[in-house]
Design goal:
Blueprint (H helix, E strand, L loop, with lengths): L1 H16 L5 E8 L10 E4 L5 E3 L5 E6 L3 E7 L6 E6 L2 E7 L28 E6 H7 L15 E4 L9 E4 L7 E5 L2 E2 L16 H4 E8 L13 E7 L7 E9 L3 E9 L7 E12 L8 E12 L5 E15 L5 E2 H7 L11 E4 L2 E4 L2 E5 L2 E9 L4 E20 L12 H6 L12 E2 H9 L18 E3 L13 E22 L2 E22 L5 E4 L9 E3 L18 E21 L4 E18 L12 E15 L4 E12 L3 H4 L14 E13 L3 E22 L7 E21 L5 E14 L3 E6 L5 E7 L12 E10 L4 E11 L1 E2 L6 E2 L19 E2 L2 E13 L5 E9 L7 E4 L20 E2 L2 E2 L3 E4 L4 E9 L1
Parallel strand pairs: 1-7, 11-14, 21-26, 27-30, 37-45
Antiparallel strand pairs: 1-4, 2-3, 2-5, 5-6, 8-13, 9-10, 11-12, 13-14, 15-16, 15-53, 16-17, 17-18, 18-19, 19-23, 19-24, 20-52, 21-22, 23-25, 24-25, 25-28, 28-29, 29-32, 30-31, 32-33, 33-34, 34-35, 35-36, 36-37, 37-38, 38-39, 38-40, 39-42, 40-41, 42-43, 43-47, 44-46, 47-48, 48-53, 49-52, 50-51
Length: about 900
């Protein structure tokens, strides 16, 4: 906390010590159609003092002279010089296309909902492409948002692309992620897997995190906020770039891009390809991936513009998913215990892991913008996505490999893990030897081809089939997703009216296949309950994004399909007097249908009935610009969100849950903004209530409660807080940017669960005492302060400090007292709530140099160091074990101590230590 106060004093010093003799210049840059040009450069002529326009085309620039000229430029347009005298508002500056590029392909604006500063009544922060490419390096994509208020992004287990994002305390399933106006949250469960979007840092032209209700017209899961990503489309200027970056632990990435520019007929094309590889900071998490983008644009006239984009990121990477206690890390992690991973080992001398994720999710989009007349326009986007892949894990009844309801330290001390080496890793050579030592198959004559072979199984142990085996299976989550969005906009004087449609059709395929038999000759699968006997399988698939994922082949364990269709309509009424007042009301209605098909587990009920749920939203707000410096706004809204797929079909069954109801989200927010030549400040107060939640969990081993499946309905959370964001410009070339956010995120009221047995018969009830329990997995207090300094026109330096506190352990409703992390403690009214974790501070630095050549080409260098001081910190925890808790009990030969004041039995993820990356980029 002392460090936190000192940094705030430094920030205050810069505010009060700033030289007061500068001239403020403002304005708005638009294209020939009057549309804002985000990213346009505005520079005081003859100096290196410059700025870039925001998403609304607006800029603020401080000049050291009272008179002069600013030069406004944007690729594909003729530069424009505008004179200024004293503090000046240059008004609207319209750029014209250059003579060689008299057509430009910019499409899809009508389906991308961005917050406009001092106009849209929504709290938002924007990260530009230059900052993404300069500072992200080899971090997880959502981590670039950690400098914005109420955002907490972590690496979770630490594999490439395994990070997660939380906004205002709400997890990723409750944060809408929209790319070019299209929703990407999973249609069944709302999840976003960043490993599927590894190439976003290469293709993103900007990110806007809209906290709270957001500006999107779509009915999306924006409980915490909306992350809007705008990617590159077809560029209007010929050119290209070759970039390479290097980083810690063998990380290497290369990308190549080229743009044809727009020809005389209005055609243009852009292409980008990239490849990355790395060994991973965490032990045993090597990975490799490819990024690809092709964009084709066509603008035949001023009324029509078309753009087709095909992009994706195919990858595979090993993971760390086995939960580890603090003492596990310390006992087996070696010198840098944070790197320890219990899911890997060696096989024939090479790295091998039970856990590997592999996926390829290409998405194709066709955008059409039609300017029907001066008042009426139509924007349409049609898209399709075809995800293929999944994740691997162990299967079999060899219980000597992984800990079961214990931490790794306890299981090894008890002598239960003979297939672990002394360093805690898995001895896969011994696993293979054990599989090969099994008895030969002696089954009936119908399977004579397999007699004498070594066959293993998880659910069968007769006829010489071996159960004490382990194989690597692959759990697939593939999908076909098609959708269309179309928005009609009518503008009349100060009023704008909008109508839109949003149609989606999703089919998700969930099944398991064999990936590696680990020395066995075959696997006896008993997963299909429609068959009288099991099936011996020898077919395996490769854990690769470019290979057959087994959708049409033999499967084990389970095979089901989820079908979700979506039909939505929305409307908008907006008033803007172009001076000081703007107001908006948005509303939407959607119908969602659910169908579940189960080819393995639902005998005589393969195809479920189709259930439909209707939801909707209404939200609105007002912004008032008091003067050129001050503005205030408010927004409020109500969302009735349809339940997720597993709430409609709980417990992996085809029986519809008649009690499933819409979740209710209410939100209210107040905001204040201040802009001056030296400092910009935004202040927000918010309150969000998330009610009528449904959760289904297994309950086992609790006193006085029958075993079964507990269904909790009516869960409620209340999230409130205050956010401060500021930018200080002490002098030309220097910018200080920071934020402070303080939240209070809690569960509200206790909740009673209904307990059902395996035949779905109500057998008991249980009360969960969670009223006042802190919501975990996201720091409720965060602060940052960043320095960006252009030392010369070619050389820049940056330094960032980040502070996180009031971070609590996650409560995941795992109500089995036999589990190591005993969430069942919340069944007692005397529980002590979620465990608070130690606060931490991190420092990052970076520097860049750009060498310009006479032929409009350039060579850029950039180096970043994250966690400069190699600080040890806990980023997440999944248990709340207090130092005087008697459970979970431990073997006397093991020790329990404390780490920074918390019990070492707690299961956590440590954040990464010091990492670095160096990048080079040649633009031509």
């Amino acid at each position: 906390m002392k460090t936190f106060k000192n940094v705030l004093l430094v920030a205050l010093f810069f505010v009060t010590a700033t030289v007061l003799g500068q001239t403020k210049i403002t304005g708005t840059v638009v294209d020939e159609m009057g549309e804002p040009l985000p990213g346009a450069n505005v520079v005081v002529k003859g100096t290196t003092n410059g700025s870039a326009t925001d998403f609304d085309g607006k800029f603020i620039l401080n000049a050291s002279s009272n008179t002069g000229v600013v030069v406004v430029s944007f690729v594909g347009y003729t530069n424009k010089e505008v004179s200024f005298t004293g503090v000046s508002d240059l008004g609207t500056i319209a750029l014209q296309p250059s003579n060689t590029l008299d057509e430009i392909v910019i499409v899809g604006k009508g389906v991308i909902d961005l917050v406009q500063e001092r106009k849209t009544p929504v709290a938002a922060s924007t990260i530009r492409a230059s900052e993404i490419q300069a500072k992200l390096g080899n971090q997880e994509f959502p981590e670039i948002l950690n400098t914005t208020p109420s955002v907490y992004a972590t690496k979770t287990g630490g594999g490439y692309g395994d990070g997660t994002l939380r906004v205002r305390g709400f997890g990723q399933v409750n944060t809408a992620v929209i790319i070019n106006g299209q929703p990407v949250n999973d249609m069944e469960n709302g999840s976003v897997y960043w490993s599927n979007w590894q190439g976003l840092s290469d293709v993103a032209s900007g990110i806007q995190i809209q906290r709270g209700l957001g500006a999107s017209k779509l009915a999306v899961p924006s409980v915490g906020g909306t992350m809007t990503i705008v990617t590159k489309s077809t560029d209007n200027k010929e050119g290209g770039a070759l970039a390479s970056s290097f980083g810690n632990d063998g990380y290497y990435k290369t990308t190549l891009s080229y743009n044809t520019g727009v020809n005389e007929e209005g055609w243009a094309a852009s292409v980008l390809i990239g490849r990355w590889q790395g060994d991973g900071y965490v032990d045993g998490t090597e990975g490799e991936g490819y990024t690809y983008l092709f964009s084709l644009g066509y603008k035949p006239s001023e009324q029509h513009a078309f753009n087709f984009t095909f992009t994706g990121a195919a990858q595979w990477h090993n993971q760390r998913s086995t939960r580890l206690s603090i003492r596990d890390f310390m006992n087996y992690g070696g010198k840098d215990f944070r790197r320890f991973n219990a899911d890997w080992g060696t096989l024939n001398g090479d790295e091998y892991s039970f856990r590997r994720n592999f996926y390829n999710k290409p998405i194709a989009t066709l955008n059409w913008d039609w300017n029907i007349n001066d008042n009426l326009s139509l924007s349409t986007s049609v898209y399709g996505s075809w995800g293929r892949g999944g994740g691997t894990g162990s299967r079999g009844s060899n219980f000597g490999i992984n800990p079961f309801r214990k931490d790794l330290t306890e299981a090894i001390a008890d002598g239960n893990l003979p297939y672990r080496k002394t360093d805690g890793t898995i001895d896969f050579d011994a696993v293979v030897a054990n599989n090969r030592a099994g008895t030969p198959f002696t089954g009936d004559t119908g399977r004579g081809a397999y007699q004498g072979l070594i066959i293993g199984s998880n659910g069968y142990s007769e006829d010489g089939v071996n159960s004490n085996v382990a194989v690597r299976r692959a759990s697939m989550n593939s999908h076909n997703w098609y959708g269309a969005i179309s928005n009609l906009k009518y503008e009349l004087n100060d009023w704008t009216f909008g109508l839109g449609v949003d149609v989606r059709s999703y089919e998700g395929f969930h099944y398991r296949v064999l990936n590696d038999l680990l020395g066995l000759d075959g696997y006896y699968s008993t997963g299909n309950k429609n068959l009288d006997t099991g099936v011996i399988q020898t077919e395996t698939i490769k854990a690769s994004p470019f290979n057959d994922t087994g959708l049409g082949g033999a499967k084990i364990d389970y095979y089901n399909v989820g079908e979700v269709d979506w039909y939505g309509a929305n409307g908008l009424v907006e008033y803007d007097n172009d001076d000081n007042l703007s107001a908006v009301v948005q509303f939407g209605l959607s119908k969602q249908t659910y169908t579940r098909i189960d080819y393995f587990d639902q005998i005589n009920n393969v195809v479920s009935d189709t259930e439909s749920k209707t939801g909707g939203y209404v939200k609105g707000g007002l912004n008032y610009n008091i003067n050129d410096a001050h503005n205030v706004f408010f927004n409020a809204g109500l969302i009735k969100r349809q339940p997720f797929f597993d709430a409609v079909f709980p417990n992996f069954s085809n029986n519809i849950n008649e009690d499933a109801e819409n979740e209710t989200i209410t939100s209210f927010e107040l905001g204040y903004g201040f802009k001056s030549e030296f400092i910009d400040v935004n202040l927000n107060l918010y309150n969000t209530t998330w009610a009528d939640r449904f959760i289904s969990r297994t309950i086992r081993g609790t006193d006085a409660v029958d075993d079964g499946t507990a269904t909790f309905s009516g869960l409620k959370q209340i999230h409130s807080g205050i956010e401060l964001e500021y930018t200080i410009r002490p002098f030309d070339g220097m910018r200080l940017k920071g934020m402070v956010s303080v939240g209070n995120w809690e569960y509200k009221d206790n909740v009673t669960a209904s307990v059902f047995d395996s035949s779905q018969t109500l057998v008991d009830s249980a009360t969960l005492y969670i009223d006042g329990t802190k919501v975990g997995d996201a720091a409720q207090t965060t602060a940052t302060l960043g320095l960006n300094y252009d030392i010369t026109s070619n050389f820049d330096f940056s330094a960032d400090w980040r502070y996180a506190a009031q971070l609590y352990s996650d409560f995941s409703f795992q109500l089995d007292t036999r589990n190591w992390a005993n969430d069942a403690a919340f069944l007692s009214p005397n529980n002590r709530g979620a465990l608070e974790l130690p606060s931490y501070s991190l420092f990052d630095i970076g520097a860049g140099y750009k060498l310009n050549f006479d032929n409009d080409s350039s060579l850029s260098f950039r180096v970043n160091v994250n966690n400069l001081f190699d600080t040890e910190y806990i980023a997440e925890a999944s248990s709340s074990i207090y130092t005087d808790d008697t459970d979970p009990q431990v073997n006397p030969v093991t020790t329990v101590s404390t780490y920074k004041g918390i019990d070492t039995r707690n299961q956590v993820w440590f954040g990464f230590g010091r990492t670095w990356n160096l990048s080079l980029k040649y633009q031509f």
